[in-house]
Description:
- The complex is a heterodimer of chains A (638) and B (216).
- Chain A has 25 helices and 23 strands.
- Chain A is globular.
- With 638 residues, chain A is α/β, with parallel strands linked by helices.
- In chain A, the strands form eight sheets. In chain A, strands 14-13-19-16-17 form a five-stranded mixed beta sheet.
- In chain A, helix 7 packs parallel to helix 11 and helix 19 crosses helix 23.
- A five-stranded mixed beta sheet of chain B has the order 2-1-5-3-4, with helices on both faces.
- In chain B, a hairpin with a 2-residue loop joins strand 1 and strand 2.
- Chain B is globular, with a radius of gyration of 20 Å.
- In chain B, 40% of the residues are buried.
- At the A-B interface, helix 19, helix 20 and helix 21 of A face helix 3 of B.
Amino acid sequence: xxxxxxxxxxxxxxxxxxxxxxxxxxxxxxxxxxxxxxxxxxxxxxxxxxxxxxxxxxxxxxxxxxxxxxxxxxxxxxxxxxxxxxxxxxxxxxxxxxxxxxxxxxxxxxxxxxxxxxxxxxxxxxxxxxxxxxxxxxxxxxxxxxxxxxxxxxxxxxxxxxxxxxxxxxxxxxxxxxxxxxxxxxxxxxxxxxxxxxxxxxxxxxxxxxxxxxxxxxxxxxxxxxxxxxxxxxxxxxxxxxxxxxxxxxxxxxxxxxxxxxxxxxxxxxxxxxxxxxxxxxxxxxxxxxxxxxxxxxxxxxxxxxxxxxxxxxxxxxxxxxxxxxxxxxxxxxxxxxxxxxxxxxxxxxxxxxxxxxxxxxxxxxxxxxxxxxxxxxxxxxxxxxxxxxxxxxxxxxxxxxxxxxxxxxxxxxxxxxxxxxxxxxxxxxxxxxxxxxxxxxxxxxxxxxxxxxxxxxxxxxxxxxxxxxxxxxxxxxxxxxxxxxxxxxxxxxxxxxxxxxxxxxxxxxxxxxxxxxxxxxxxxxxxxxxxxxxxxxxxxxxxxxxxxxxxxxxxxxxxxxxxxxxxxxxxxxxxxxxxxxxxxxxxxxxxxxxxxxxxxxxxxxxxxxxxxxxxxxxxxxxxxxxxxxxxxxxxxx
Amino acid sequence: xxxxxxxxxxxxxxxxxxxxxxxxxxxxxxxxxxxxxxxxxxxxxxxxxxxxxxxxxxxxxxxxxxxxxxxxxxxxxxxxxxxxxxxxxxxxxxxxxxxxxxxxxxxxxxxxxxxxxxxxxxxxxxxxxxxxxxxxxxxxxxxxxxxxxxxxxxxxxxxxxxxxxxxxxxxxxxxxxxxxxxxxxxxxxxxxxxxxxxxxxxxxxxxxxxxxxxxx
Lengths: 638, 216
């Protein structure tokens, strides 16, 4: 791989690469995102390669098989797209590959049964599918299109063009100003204005000369969230480019990619991307002949959720235990090795090249005032179309979940959305009664429109946060007490244990919720739990403890009646909390097959074949196996 | 109102002028709110702060409510440096809520500690709603001993092991530590006396202590 000496060289290389491309050449893109990989996408990609080799398709139309990042439509994996025919196949299994090669690649026809269909309509290309139609892909534009292991692919898709523009046409001050004007806010959760953060670091570095560092936070630990993962795996060069631009603006010469250990593929793709970028002269000494030096190194997080907190990242990079420290001083003042440091989320860095390319005005035109640009959400839970979506900020929650998500599958109702991961809140879809408490400002919220707008400030008003972008959709079969308990248990395990309100408080809150889930406690305990939650919000040292009570506080605020149902009526309306439910066999529906009695782990179901079976309630552990195996749905939760 | 008047008047010295509970106080430029309060004989409770070591901010009993213009925050006074015109409230309802809950949880965490019982009683907390796991426990993992061993004694004979709720005071690698010189600094700074009983597990067998780090 030849080094690119200057920006003109970059353009020449891109031209040569583009000219070498044959627009007629069929390209098969197999999604190798996390969802599809779990469904066996690697086998599909291998099957394509061997099928094409065996068929000996003529050299001129030698199809290119590309493993790409996540296409986003995870519920329909494995996803395969064919260009230039512009076909989009869903749920592809290795055994379908021979047919696709024979029909689509050789004869140019469509395999109808593999197209996405919904409500009787079949969609040939991805762009027509409602799930994609409402999205606005900017950050994810290249994810799923390019091969992340090949820098040439990224260069052809416009990679490093913004870097060339910045290095030749813009001064560091102009870059800073552009980011400030664009209104970009940190995508990691807090929504802190990125331009302000950069400005402070640059000012501090000027007052106190010495090295400056940039860090990408790829420690994405929220359950059910994989936005950063798909960027890192699908388009690592965008993150690298963003970091070089940021480093140029701040005068940094060293950067760190802090990626969690649980993302081996992201680390693998990053290490290849870094090597290729170095070989191409896009990283290292004298980048593109501009005289600017910058290099990056990958640091693996050891799997602690709290290491997503910026001061904990610094501690971790310095070789200490990943425990947060108090802020101020902020990392922009005293960060890594005591020097000004800018830590941004992976998605934030990936925004930077786009802002430089198209300008701050274009960026502010996206989204809503104070929350500009687009945001990637991972839509999971009780929703038909699960996957990754990129939408402009300020989209209504309804449009996101009902429109793009396709609503709740089955006969149940859409109840609530859990946003922002364990530190976020549970927002009811249709806002129920608003309960006053002394910390939040519900009056502002009542005045606001009923449809919750998805942007930083509106989400904060509900008591939740937008967070990294996890969206867990819940229906009538989800119990908010149980969900709050789940997140608290997660955080209790992940708390670093440094400060008392977080270490003891999460344990204490969990004790309260465990009692509620057993139907014990009194209505006063709910108030006590709220006040304890407030003590954590006020007293904890870092963002983890301060945001940890959010799921509990919001669920009490919006679903107090459900808490009361547990405590006063000793019932779990959603039928989830084991101590408050019982499984019954409906005598009308039971056909006496005896499957439940066979499968029951406690052997507490008795009856005779072809007669009614009954569940012995004393021995029953409410595992629900009988309900799962019953062929006629005779087992019901009471 | 007082604060506003003060900030307009250019201070003649380099002291930081602000108020604690309505009383005007002056701080040296590098003082924290807690240090200023102590210098003015105003009481703020703490368990993890000790003048000999860097503030660590783990017990959160020293939280105070600070007001500056419209910005109201609850923050640890041992770590926060005051700015001119700041209004500090040491006993506001939000502050008391944090303190009472921390103390109630500490009663369950360190049920054997007389010091914590007395402190809790001062705040009207006499019983706990939380589960007591070890009735003999006194250690609240405040980190004073770890810090004093490192910062004052200059060795690292003590450390925290595990994480979160499982956090424990241990010696590195859970073996008796040769680096320990038996100076007893950790015992003297311990707010509850929990280290008294543990010192021998740190030092190990005295007859076998040789090698690097051992003070003769």
